[in-house]
Amino acid sequence: MTDDVNKSAGDDSAGMEQAAEYALGLLTPDAASAFEAQMVTDPAAREAYAFWATTLASLTDDIAPVAPPKGVEDRINAALFGAQRKPRTILERLGSRPLAFAMTIMALTVLWVTLQPDVAPTVVPDYRAEIAAEDNSLIVLASFDVETRQLLISRTEGGARPGRTLQLWLIAGDAAPVSLGVLPDQTNVTLAVGDALVMAMAEGVLAISDEPLGGSPTGLPTGDVLAVGSVTRL
Amino acid sequence: MTELNDIEDYIARMALGDRDAFAALYRATSAKLFGVCLRVLGEQAEAEDALQEVFVKIWHNASRYQVNGLSPMTWLITIARNLSIDRLRARRKAGGGSMDEAEALADTRPGPEALTLAASDRGQIVACMNELSPDRADAVRRAYLEGETYQELADRYDQPLNTIRTWLRRSLMKLKECLSR
Question: Which end of chain B is more exposed for a tag (fewer CB within 10 A), N or C?
Answer without folding.
Answer: N
